[in-house]
Amino acid sequence: xxxxxxxxxxxxxxxxxxxxxxxxxxxxxxxxxxxxxxxxxxxxxxxxxxxxxxxxxxxxxxxxxxxxxxxxxxxxxxxxxxxxxxxxxxxxxxxxxxxxxxxxxxxxxxxxxxxxxxxxxxxxxxxxxxxxxxxxxxxxxxxxxxxxxxxxxxxxxxxxxxxxxxxxxxxxxxxxxxxxxxxxxxxxxxxxxxxxxxxxxxxxxxxxxxxxxxxxxxxxx
Length: 221
Ligand code: NAP
Known about the structure:
The protein is of the alpha/beta class. It has seven helices and seven strands; from the N terminus they run H-E-H-E-H-E-H-E-H-H-E-H-E-E. It has one domain: 3-Layer(aba) Sandwich (Rossmann fold). The site of NADP nicotinamide-adenine-dinucleotide phosphate has 30 residues, from helix 1 and helix 4.
């Protein structure tokens, strides 16, 4: 689980730990990750910055050594819900950072962990309706975020095709508008956002792959 020291990522970790699963909580700041994991059984905390190739490789190496493989990879880390700018006047450094974390971070995780994914494993890319052409319907706003999530959706389709023959399911999910540091006040509870992610974690072997859902229902690309 990437970006798991707070928000939706931490809530998903809690749910998986309650099931008795072994969970690797990835956190940029290990101390914050340990604080978040306090009281959760079966959760180990690893330093993980998905924008840093060495950090991602170190995590993959530790997972190999300590667990031997992965049943589920949740690419949850995300940044820059850039409500403060429009596409015409966008700060391209912000766009670049969003791409580096939201797209390349998830991609880098899959590349590094590809040979760890067990047959039947699930990869869940936490995307957003903000990246949906169908839901955007010609509207503006959050350009860095929206473009990065649209790219994450296409990455999901490509990975799903490449990993289908290995029995690995790769799906994108939108957690809905959730009251987190990113989502702000007024969004739905963490439990609802986490449930939308867990739908794709819990798909059965041979289940759908290359999909984009919210609460288990299709989101238009
Ligand atoms: P959040 O509360 O802002 O948490 C984001 C998490 O990502 C934090 O743990 C953060 O770590 C981590 N992160 C940021 N950059 C990272 C990096 N380079 N490497 C590793 N971790 C990094 O956000 P959230 O609302 O829980 O969002 C989780 C996911 O859901 C995101 O992908 C977001 O785009 C998506 N989403 C959220 C909403 C919503 O309404 N909240 C709606 C649609 C989609 P630090 O604590 O170290 O910063």
